[in-house]
Design brief:
Layout: E1 2-6, E2 11-16, H1 22-29, E3 33-36, H2 39-45, E4 49-54, H3 66-72, H4 74-77, E5 85-91, E6 94-96, H5 100-113, E7 118-119
Parallel strand pairs: 2-7
Antiparallel strand pairs: 1-2, 1-5, 3-4, 4-5, 5-6
């Protein structure tokens, strides 16, 4: 299912991820999956959204993901997110992507709200 990915170099894209296959999710973020659910994410998306990140991003010395760190709440506790992040909607105990139309709309909102972001493949 289509969802949004934000990379450490501030690129945003819509990707297709099979949320029923943990290996596909790992491939999308580049490592072991750590689901992150914060009040900041909920307040922004007005829905139960999870950000899926590389559990070992800091250990691997991956670059900081500024947007993901914002959603994680780094200003409150000092920890950042290192590595790429994808987003998923929680429906009961299942995680799903945003879908085609909603992914486009959320990507446009994120581009508007985070001035450093740009669409992947565009300058």
């Amino acid at each position: 299912m289509k969802t949004i990915k934000i990379t450490t170099d501030n690129k945003i894209s819509i990707i297709d991820v099979n949320f029923d296959d943990h290996k596909d999710i790992q491939k999308a973020i580049g490592g072991y999956i750590e689901p992150v659910h914060t009040k900041t994410l909920f307040n922004y998306f007005k829905a139960p959204i999870y950000m899926l990140v590389d559990e070992e991003g800091l250990i691997k010395n991956l670059p900081v993901n500024v947007v993901a760190s914002h959603f994680y709440g780094f200003k409150d506790h000092g920890c950042v997110i290192a590595g790429d992040a994808i987003f998923a909607l929680a429906i009961g105990e299942n995680l799903i992507g945003f879908g085609d139309r909603d992914s486009e709309q959320w990507m446009e909102k994120l581009l508007k709200d985070f001035s450093g972001l740009e669409k992947d493949g565009e300058k």
